[in-house]
């Protein structure tokens, strides 16, 4: 069975983009894969973070993942800082990856913006740690949203260079799984920007913790254009906001853009937004309620993470021990 690995940062509340682009697919993949899912708190400190709340956010996100349907008994759910193998392999990869490769990462350019001299060095080497996360488990399939594609290509480049330099076919090639009609959910305020935790406007995203009234209000106010919905996909050309809302609807109903347009094409946005808001409330409210229920006993979530870290370390430690031997470290 192929091993799946994926991760999510514990900064801010998870949003609809995280859910539809990643977590929902993680849940489905549990049926026929061995899955390892990680709350990546080491990545969270590459940008300014709130040290007072990071531990709570790690716990909250873990509860939300379980509420979404991640099964921490059949699979592994843990937080990154608890398994040191990630850091050991990240260091090796930092010495394998080339400056030029990291310089080309679009996420770094986007996140650093004009302030390149002032961001942390961790933000620059972020993709090395991400490659280590995956390769420490010899995972071969990685379900992510579309925005992580470049990072996964880099993870393959690093593995190939490691194998070449040290003359061993040690790290396998990984296959990105970018799935479904909502692999890139866009901001509700601007169809050209992705939905993101770091957008200053809360109106731009649906948080998994939003209540029914908030969800309905955000969808009602979502930016659209004055035309009715088109009846076929070609009609979405040049209409990013319409495409985004149709994609969200399609993902939540397990169909595709064309099927949604067959049912709703020709309508004005008013009716469609109402249907979409009702659907979101129906799908997301149980997740918020279950998250709250799980967090009522923080001991439960901590126990899940402790157990997950032990099982993760049991897989990663021997793989990284061998990588260290291959690099030439003395093991006594
Ligand atoms: P993060 O925490 O930004 O996002 C977690 C997952 O959600 C997806 N995602 C989206 N999908 C669709 N539309 C959006 N607007 C949207 N926003 C986020 C992301 O693609 C991601 O799959 N670097 C990663 C975390 C990571 C990781 C890894 C992933 C660390 N190590 C190893 C895979 C394998 C990140 O910051 O994701």
Describe this structure in words.
The chain is mainly α and 332 residues long. The protein folds into two domains: 3-183 and 297-327, 3-Layer(aba) Sandwich (Rossmann fold); 202-293, Tyrosyl-Transfer RNA Synthetase (Orthogonal Bundle). It is built from 13 helices and five strands. The longest helix is centred in the last third of the chain and has 30 residues, at 298-327. The two termini are 34 Å apart. Bound molecules: tryptophanyl-5'AMP. Tryptophanyl-5'AMP binds at residues 5-9, 17-18, 21-22, 40, 43, 130, 133-134, 142, 144-145, 147-148, 183-185, 194-195.
Any descriptors?
332 residues, mainly alpha, Rossmann fold, Tyrosyl-Transfer RNA Synthetase, 2 domains, 3-stranded parallel β-sheet, 13 helices
What is this structure, in a nutshell?
The protein has 332 residues and is mainly alpha-helical. It has two domains: 3-183 and 297-327, HUPs (Rossmann fold, 3-Layer(aba) Sandwich), CATH 3.40.50; 202-293, Tyrosyl-Transfer RNA Synthetase (Orthogonal Bundle). The chain has 13 helices and five strands.
Helices and strands, with pairings:
Elements: E1 3-8, H1 16-29, E2 34-39, H2 41-44, H3 54-68, E3 76-79, H4 85-96, H5 99-103, H6 106-112, H7 121-135, E4 141-143, H8 149-165, E5 175-177, H9 212-221, H10 240-252, H11 257-264, H12 269-295, H13 298-327
Parallel strand pairs: 1-2, 2-3, 4-5
Helix pairs in contact: 3-12, 4-7, 4-13, 7-8, 9-12, 10-11, 10-12
Bound molecules: tryptophanyl-5'AMP (TYM).
